[in-house]
Amino acid sequence: MPQQTPHQNAPFPSAGGEAHGYLALPESGRGPGVIVIQEWWGLVDHIKDVADRLAAEGFGALAPDLYGGRTTHDGAEAAGMMAGVPEEEGARLLAGAGDYLLSSAAVAGSTVGAIGFCMGGGFVLALAAQQGERVSAAVPFYGVGQGVPESFAGVRAAVQGHYGEQDAFYPAEKARGQAEQIRRESGAEVTYYFYVAPHAFHNDENPAGNYRPAEAKLAWSRAVDFLKDNIR
Description:
This protein is an alpha/beta fold and 232 residues long. It is built from 6 helices and 8 strands; from the N terminus they run βββαβααβαββαβα. The chain has one domain: Alpha/Beta hydrolase fold, catalytic domain (Rossmann fold). The longest helix has 18 residues. The protein is globular and about 40 Å long. Pfam families: DLH.
């Protein structure tokens, strides 16, 4: 593996080809691995910043690029781009990111965590269902889109979700039902938190202005502690 620097674009083998992502490493050069999964906008600066923030907390964070370099700030275009990444294809690519992290000397441990937002929150659950015990911590933030799997039977990760009570894209009651479905089908430890906030409340670059600083700060602190406690 080539020499790694604290922040870099990282190619990795995936689904029989080569994928790319943004890799952020802690100052120590080594830490627990976390896959950071983008919103429907693509691998934008906000998602890279999330990876950097995780690196500052001691993690080795890889944000895969699910769109092959494309990004947008237009909702209709983002919806079309998201539709072009079906659950199975996205989960396979993300599995390659997990393989990359677990084979890296910069990553400690035998499991990875996954955190994702909007579309990425859905793919967090798809990845956990697909990868079983290899993913020990799954953190979906307001997960929506075709990345959400129909069955959670394969989930072996502890799951911590963050959802808005005012989310028009994914109503809170639906999220509560999802949490119960995960528990029922997988037997996993599941905790979903709900905030007086709309969809995408964690994104401080959200084009719709949905960012809620206090709620975002609380959710982030919970997520970081959870990842530290559950990646082995």
